Amino acid sequence: MLALVATAWFIYDYWRDHRFDEEITRAAKQHGLSPFLVKAVVWRESRFNTYARGSSGEVGLMQVMPTTAADWAKANRQGAFDPQTMALPAVGLDVGCWCLRRALDRWKSASDPVPYALAEYNAGRSNALRWAAGLPPRDPQRFRASITYPGTRAYVRTIEERYQHYKRRGRL
Fold this sequence. Notes:
The chain has one domain: Lysozyme (Orthogonal Bundle), CATH 1.10.530.10. Helix content is about 65%, strand content about 0%. The protein is built from 9 helices and no strands. It has helices at about 1-20, 20-30, 35-45, 65-75, 90-105, 115-125, 125-130, 140-145, 150-170. Helix 2 (about 20-30) crosses helix 3, helix 5 packs across helix 6 and helix 6 (about 115-125) packs across helix 7. It is globular. The mean pLDDT is about 95.
């Protein structure tokens, strides 16, 4: 019986971890992102649950705030935007990838923009700028150490670890 439960759990876990691989790859490519990074963010933000809702109102696979989704809709000339559509994988991934791409572009002068962008994605631009203030842009290790929110520091670390995990496997 225990073997049956373990097998069922393994199958469910595998299905959950891979059911959005095509959508993740499509959205990542559309925004010029690594699908491994996008999948790591989705894993951390929602554990692949399209209906996940954060305590501050974040929604979708990449847990984006409705106000940010409205910015995306305006920038992409989407017209009237219903935040409920963030639960649709294609929409949530498109909006989340758009946000992540913007953050990475803002930190492109850094030797490794990923930790900066992840900190911004999680805690906001003003906090990321505050943590980076006075630090050389070629020192992401010092930037990680300067993050004063323990939750954001753990967020950046766990996503970077998962990102490397997916890259080592070489497939989503």
